[in-house]
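Subject: Interface between my chains keeps coming out wrong

I've been trying for a while to get a sensible model of this assembly. When I model each chain on its own everything looks fine, but I need the whole thing in one frame so I can look at the contacts. Pasting all components below, labels as-is. Any help appreciated, I'm running out of ideas.
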Amino acid sequence: MSELLENKEFKTWLSDNIIYTEVKLNAVIDLEAARDNSRMVRELSGEKKYPLLVDLNNIKSITKEAREHFSMKGRDPYINSLAMVIKSPISRMIGNYFINLSSPIVPTKLFNSKERAIKWLTPYTNG
Amino acid sequence: MDSINTTYQKELYKLICRIKDIPPKKISFDEMESFIAENINDIEYLISCKESCDKRLREMADVIISYSNKEFNQKAFISDSNNEFDGLAVGINMLGEELDSANISLHEKEVLLKEIHHRVKNNLQLISSLINLQSSILDDKEAKIQFKECQDRIKSMALVHEKLYRTENFSQINFSHYVIELVKEISKTYSQQTNIKLNFDVKPNIFLDLDTSISVGLIINELIVNAFKHAFNEKSIEPKIDVLIDDQQEQIFVKILDNGNGVKDDFNINNTSSLGLTIITSLIEQIEGDINFKSDNGTQVSFSFKKQTLS
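Reply #2:
Try treating it as a single job with all components included. I did that and got this:
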C-alpha cells in the first residue's frame, strides 16, 4: 500500500494497482473537496492511469458542481475506470444520480460490495 | 369503568409485546400493570419516532412544493444518521439542483431566441427602410409603387418575428391577432383610400407555426394590397373589404371579400404575369393549399390549408 493521502473529506491510497478513496463520516463534498480529491488521485497515479474505487457509504451530501467535476468531462480523468461502493441510503441515491445524470467519461459502475467492485476493476489494473 | 381499563391495559400490553417482539402471556392484571410501567418508555420512544418521521416527511413535502414555485434553492434537511429519510432528502436536494440548472438553461435559450427574433425583425425593418430610401430618389412613379409593394412584403414578414418575440411561445404565433394587425398595417399605407371599410370575422386564438404564418401572411398581404389598389374606383359605393378566418378539423379557411369591381370572367391565376399573383400561386403550393377566385358583387378569394403543413 502507498502512503495515505488525507484531507477533511477523503482518505486516498494506492494498493495492488487500484486507487482507493474512502469518504469520511458525514462528509459534505463541495467543488473544492472534489478538486482536492482529484489532486490526490493524480499524485498517486503519476504517469499511469489506475482504476479508482470510491467508498461512498459515509457521505452526507455532494454539490452539483462536485458531481460535475467527478464526471471528468473536459479534463484529464487521471483514472481509467471507476467503481463506487454504495450501501447506505444516501450513497445509493448519490451514486445513482451521479451515474445517470453526470455521465462520467470513464467506465463506471455501482456496487454494494467492495469485493465485487475490486473484481470488476481488476481487468483495468494493467492500464 | 373497570372493564374499559382492563381492555385498555390488555391492548397496551399486547402492543408492548409486539414492539419487544415477545409472545403475550396470560398474566394477572397487576402483573400486566407492572409490565406496562416498566416498558412505557418504549411506547414513548415509538411515539416520538413517529412524530419525528411525520415532521421530516412534512419538511420534504414543503421542499417539493417550493420546487413547484421554481424555488429550487430550498433544501431538505439531512441528519447525520444516514437513514432512508436522509437518502430521500439527498435525492430531493439533487433533484432541485438539476431542475434549477435545467431551468436556467431553458431561460437562457428563451432569451437567446427572443433576441434572434428581435434582430431578424430589426434587420427586416432595416431592409424596408433601405428600400424606402432607394425609392425616394426615383422619379418613376411605377417603380416607386413596386418598391412600396416590396416594402409591404418585408413588413408582413417582420411582423411575424415581432409577434414571436412578444409572446412566450417561440414556435407558434397567434395567427388571428397577426392577420388583423397585418391588414390594419397595410390599410395605413393606402391611407388615401381611408373610406374603404375593413371588417373582420376572425376566429380568435388560431395558432400557426413560423413558416406557415410567413407564407400565409404574404398571401394575405398580396390579396389585401390588390383589393386596395384595384377593387375600387371613385364611383364605388360604401367600399369594404371583409377578412374571414375560421378553422375546422385542423384546416384553416381564409376568405378575403370586397364589394368592388370583381375579377374578369376569364380570370385564371395560373395564367397571369402579375408578380403579386405569381407570389400567391407559389406560396399556396408551398402550404399545399387550394385557392379560388370568384366574382360576386366584387371579388371573393378563398383559400384553405392544413395547419402545420410545413416541416
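Reply #3:
Confirming on my end. Chain A has one domain: 5-121.
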